[in-house]
Amino acid sequence: MLECGARREHPDLKQLVIEASRALAQLDASRLEELALSCQALNQTLGASGAESRSGLAIQARKARGDMAVFARILEATRCNLGVINRLRELRAGRLEYGERPAHGWAPAEIRHGDN
Amino acid sequence: MGTISSAFGLISGALDADQSALSIVANNVANANTPGYTEETPNWQENSPVTIGGVSYGSGVTETGATSVRDRVLEGRLDQQQQLASASSARLTALNGVQALFTPDSGSSTATAGDIGSDITSLFSSFSSLEADPTNISLREEVLSSAKTLAGDVSNAAASLDSQGSALGQQASGVTGQVNSLTTAIAQLNQQIETTSPNTDAGTLEDRRQEDLSQLSQLIGINQVTTENNGLSLTTTSGQLLVSGGSSFELTSGSVGGATHLFVGGTDITFQLASGGGQLGGTLTALNQDIPTALNALNQLAYNLSTSVNALNNAGTDLNGDTGTVTVPLNIFSQPTALAGSAASMSVAMTDPSQIATAALGLGTGNNSNANAMANLSNQSIVNGQTPIDYYSNFVSSLGATVSGVQAENTAENASVTQLQAQNNALSGVNLNDEAAAMSKMENSYQAASQVFTMLNTIMAAALNLGDQTTVS
Question: What percent of chain A has pLDDT over 90?
């Protein structure tokens, strides 16, 4: 446990990537937004860090490469899933012309008759 | 129609419609915890208008039944991802078993397949030791002992791979039984759906069919084709018909050349099923691809090592002044006759240590030239263009990379299944989650994850570059 006032130079990159993959799998948008802020802060402090710290981060980056590949695969799968969901939304909204529209409710007469 | 009776008709119709709708809602709530149950929504149909005094009035609505809130596209995508996840999961389990065989057991004194690398080193070290004192019997015994340990570990590894293959074959045969039960059930449901509900959603029947399809997707790669009257045809991903309307076609297993093969109507579809997905796909990939690859590597090592060592031993003179001949060879290892089966049959043929031919021909029994040549085999490319230890190391590394790749695939595919299940539950399940909120959650998650990925990628690239610069300077 870190003492009061002490802070780690960099969070463990491998854990960060694993955490991001897990949050994306569970569609935990809040956690992902927190992680995005953490990464932003890390990115900003990277340039100002010392040589020893940079070397340590390079080692961490090498260790995290495999998990980064997994994260990339999950991101790609999410993109595909999102594509399917978005097309379904379009389909339900009647903007795509696959088959008949479901008969929920009825259209107002003026629209139905096309006389408006 | 009179004004008052029309108004009563309209009101009582509306009450009837509301009552029917309430029944559907009650049914949804009652089935909230039923696995696979899909929420139903009432269908409303506009009644014919009533004309009073030349003026048309609307006459309300009638409830005409329920439609399940299902999305076949989403369910199809979920099934497809489930097939991929199940395949990689089954393959990963099998690969982990193979990898465990080749993991060095540092804490144990018992020889295992994981020690093959150190066994190879020990064998050539024992030749080097013998080179320094070629007439020493205990050093000669040490050579035979090292050879026995290596041969034992290689043949044990081959036997373990063989039994893992048999277990996978049995597993594949077991899965065919489950597949057949499910395809039979789906065919029966098809028949009921087509007969009882040809033009409308069949509600619970379709839920049951979807539940069976979901289970089937975990077992085998399938394609779904919707047919007339809410029917469904199922084929394997390579196109063999499994279900057509009310008929199902049985998947059978049999042995071809000692290996488990699977058939539909007499056609061998083993290799097509391996690439098709589901538990069966993963199991067959491990059975037909991963285990043979590992076994081939072991065979290659055993064959080349045994033949190279034997060839040199037959080219020298032993401690008794004898040289190997075609009829009476001086083989250290049993001479393999073919590449296939070399690992399983690898053993030490020599029992008398004085028969190790340390001397070159014509240089006397105390000479060490041939022992030197045998020790130098460790640095020669005698196994597929590589030294024995390099060949073995590369095989183990390649196996590790395969396991790691399948693990990554499996993690990503399971994540995708988790996401789709969440979406499907929000859409089809009976809960208070709003469908639009679920979609928006997915979009927000994707956008935030994209940001995280981009930043992590930048950080890692920068860290690796900075790290390299640091090490260079």
Answer: 28
- The vertex-B409 CA angle with B96 and B75, nearest 5°, equals 120
SS3 assignment, position B236? strand
pLDDT at B229 over 70: yes
Q: Beta partners for B220?
A: none
Contact B463 A26 (CB under 8 A): no
ipTM of the complex: 0.73
CA distance B278 to B220: 4
CB spacing of B445 vs A46 below 8 angstroms: no
The Cα–Cα gap between B295 and B23 comes to 63
Instruction: Specify the number of domains making up chain A.
Output: 1
Q: Distance, in angstroms, between A113 CA and closest chain B CA?
A: 15
Give the residue from A10, A55, A74 with the most B CB atoms within 10 Å of its CB, the best one to mutate: A74
Is a pLDDT exceeding 70 seen at residue A106?
no
In a domain, A108, yes or no: no
Angstrom distance (rounded) from CA B172 to CA B263:
12
User: Helix (H, G, I), strand (E, B), or coil: what is residue B254?
Assistant: strand
Residue A107 belongs to some domain of the structure: no
Chain B residue numbers touching A26 (CB-CB < 8 A): 418, 422
Q: Which residue of B has its CA nearest to A52?
A: B470
Domain limits for position A63: 13-96
Mark which residues 8-37 of A lie under 8 Å from B by CB: 13, 16-17, 20-21, 23-29, 32-33, 35-36
